[in-house]
UniProtKB/TrEMBL annotation:
Transmembrane segments: none annotated. This is Ribonuclease E inhibitor RraB. Residues 8-105 form the Regulator of ribonuclease activity B domain. SUPFAM superfamilies: Hypothetical protein VC0424. It holds the Pfam family RraB. It comes from Undibacterium rivi.
Length: 113
């Protein structure tokens, strides 16, 4: 789990090194790993019902596990992102998913809303 302090540093870094408006909508990608693709399909469906967009489900480079990538345009603070990560970690535990691996972020494009 990524600590709140790490997320605060991440937000400070984004403010310093990007031209993004960190206090508005950004495109957040979230990643889950499991050896069983079907388990990831189940949570993908659940996440889509909650407004997430399915991006991809693909085998890892070493073919030992699958990666689920979903995304959502959202506005976060370090605290709300910390809460989101906790929710997704709990979802992974509920469905016996091997790992909620965290997130990435980029600018929100209208086409991806």
């Amino acid at each position: 789990m990524i600590s709140l302090a790490d997320l605060e540093s991440m937000f400070n870094n984004m403010r310093a090194k990007t031209k993004w408006n960190v206090d508005s909508n950004l495109l957040w990608g979230y990643f889950f790993f499991d050896p069983h693709a079907e388990k990831l399909r189940v949570i993908a469906t659940e996440l889509q019902k909650s407004g997430y967009r399915f991006v991809n489900l693909y085998p890892s480079d070493d073919k030992t596990t699958y990666v689920l990538h979903v995304e959502k345009v959202e506005t976060h603070t370090p605290k709300t992102l910390y809460q989101r990560n906790q929710e997704l970690e709990q979802l992974a535990e509920k469905h016996d998913i091997a790992s909620y691996d965290g997130m990435d972020v980029g600018p929100a494009l209208d086409a991806k809303k």
